[in-house]
Each structure stands twice: as structure tokens, then as C-alpha cells.
Amino acid sequence: MWRQVExxxxxxxxxxxxSGSVANGDPTTESDNADLGVFCEIHLNDILCGSxxxxxxxxxxxxxxSFSFSDLPPFQTLELQLxxxxxxxxxxxxxxxxxxxxxxxxxxxVEGWFPVLQDGLADTSIQVGEVRLKIRVDESVFPTCNDxxxxxxxxxxxxxxxxxxxxxxx
Length: 170
Description:
By secondary structure, the chain is mainly beta. It has three helices and eleven strands, in the order βββαββββββββαα. It has a single domain (2-141), classed as Sandwich (Immunoglobulin-like), CATH 2.60.40.150.
């Protein structure tokens, strides 16, 4: 089985960490939210597969970056972790957008805004912005030669394979 995900991270909007929140010991103030350096980490089935460049855009970054992931294991989830970068400190997670790839119709492009959620106390989440994505999920089954022969009953008539494959002109 061949599987592929094509992803374009277009832009974010209203990306803030709620005022007064603390992540990794780094309290946030309103002035910090005005000058965010933001990037996305792309995780497929909980495996880090890529990241965008850092954009400074006052909570409204434009990335327009495309990624293609192929030869994948069975689809489960696509997670974008949006991270804030600040000089001299480790990047901190603003929130994440989790998307179940099993729900996508194969071969169709889906474009839209997806909520960016920050985990809160007692299994609650707070929306801290949105990210606009374009996603295409493909999945195909490639038959083996044995499957083709069995399916077309060509084991007995080898000349039929040329009618199946077409003629080659020299």
C-alpha cells in the first residue's frame, strides 16, 4: 500500500498565548504576544517529519510552505505544533492542531482553517488561534505481477499480456 500526504501551511491568525500563562517557566505578557516568532513542527503519527521557517508577524504569520510525505505507514493523525521562539530561551509550544487523516477523502484537496488548541487543566483546551492549511491525502494499492496474472487469467495465455500492456513501437 502506497500512502502520501501533501501539506501546505498557508498562514496563521490570532496566534497568541493567553496572557499570564506560563510555559517552560516563561511568563507571557501582552507585549510578548505583539512580536511572536512562530514556527510549525509537523508530526505524522506522533513522529516529527518537518518544520516551517520562523515568521515574525504579530500573531498573523504567512508561511506558504509546502511539504510532501510519501511511503507512509497507515494514516492516523497529522499534528501541527505551533511554537513560539524567543531569543535566549528554548522554543515554547503555543498550541497544536490535530487532524485525523482517516476522515479525508482520498485524492481530494481540503483547504480551510483549523483551530490551534492549548491543553488546559482537567482535560480542557483553550483555542489560541487558527492555522490555514491545504491538505491532500492519497492512498493506492499497487497489484503485484502475480495479482495481475491471476486477475486476468493470463497464466495460461502469455500472449494476452501484450494486449493488457499495449504494444511498444521501436
